[in-house]
């Protein structure tokens, strides 16, 4: 039964936000460490751990929002410490879907989502961009769709709709597990708008004079550490992206309006042709 929590005790604990990466934990006191920072894809804080409760995080990191495409809202914090991903809300006649989480939502931002019709479905590409998903679940009680492969990272959440490789929770919005960056890393394909929300499968450097134009594109196992993906991981990426029709590619940080299926496949094919690397490749070289 959607929304049924057979054991919800952990979800009643206070929430704490890691200042280094933005990962949320539910704990009876400030946690001793952050599992996401201790993971090999990240780095530990140089000056020790700092965890903020929700009220402190809201006061420290103002939340902003903007309709970046018709029916697609972006939420972000500025200023913010740590990773600082953006969250997206996709408005549809069948219900609204949230994808990714910014580090913290203000009460005004949550009220704005409510005014847009709330949130029926919720998901994310991988733990680096879970962010404040617990806030959204507490406020709107959406169905939470996450890959079973990343279940171990969801202790602060209640997964109600686990999936293996592909799930279409709303018409025209389909989740596809790419693996690679994380075992459960997934992308969201918006077939109506021709957008792939690609999580950390790809990374862009943007034109400072045109923030929707990507100048370079790269792919990584670990961006902070510069670790490349293997050929097997890239092959899986290619299989997923090749099956999708899209002309824009958005990460939790950038909206690349000039990169679509052709450029993404050209990048992956070039990477498969040689030894693994994590170097940025000019978009102009992929056309």
TrEMBL record:
Family annotation (Pfam families): Lactamase_B (PF00753)
Domain of life of the native organism: Bacteria
Domain Metallo-beta-lactamase, residue spans: 148-212
InterPro entries documented for this protein: Metallo-B-lactamas, RibonucZ/Hydroxyglut_hydro
Protein name stated in the entry: Metallo-beta-lactamase domain-containing protein
Taxonomic placement: Bacteria, Pseudomonadati, Pseudomonadota, Alphaproteobacteria, Hyphomicrobiales
């Amino acid at each position: 039964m959607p929304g049924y929590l057979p054991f919800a005790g952990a979800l009643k604990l206070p929430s704490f936000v890691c200042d280094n990466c933005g990962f949320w934990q539910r704990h009876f006191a400030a946690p001793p460490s952050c599992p996401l920072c201790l993971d090999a894809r990240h780095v530990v804080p140089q000056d020790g751990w700092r965890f903020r409760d929700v009220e402190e995080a809201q006061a420290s990191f103002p939340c902003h929002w903007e309709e970046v495409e018709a029916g697609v809202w972006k939420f972000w914090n500025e200023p913010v410490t740590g990773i600082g991903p953006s969250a997206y809300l996709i408005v549809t006649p069948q219900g609204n879907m949230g994808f990714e989480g910014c580090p913290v939502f203000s009460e005004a931002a949550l009220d704005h989502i409510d005014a847009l019709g709330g949130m029926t479905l919720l998901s994310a590409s991988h733990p680096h961009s879970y962010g404040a998903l617990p806030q959204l679940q507490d406020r709107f009680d959406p169905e939470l769709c996450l890959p079973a492969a990343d279940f171990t990272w969801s202790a602060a959440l209640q997964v109600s709709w686990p999936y293996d490789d592909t799930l279409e929770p709303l018409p025209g919005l389909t989740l596809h597990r790419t693996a690679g960056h994380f075992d459960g890393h997934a992308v969201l394909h918006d077939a109506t708008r021709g957008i792939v929300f690609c999580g950390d499968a790809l990374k862009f450097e943007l034109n400072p004079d045109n923030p929707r134009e990507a100048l370079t594109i790269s792919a990584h196992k670990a961006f902070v550490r510069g670790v490349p993906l293997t050929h097997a991981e890239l092959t899986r990426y290619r299989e997923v992206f090749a099956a999708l029709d899209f002309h824009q590619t958005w990460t939790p940080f950038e909206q690349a309006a000039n990169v679509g299926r052709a450029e993404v496949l050209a990048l992956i094919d070039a990477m498969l042709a040689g030894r693994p690397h994590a170097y940025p490749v000019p978009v102009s070289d992929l056309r």
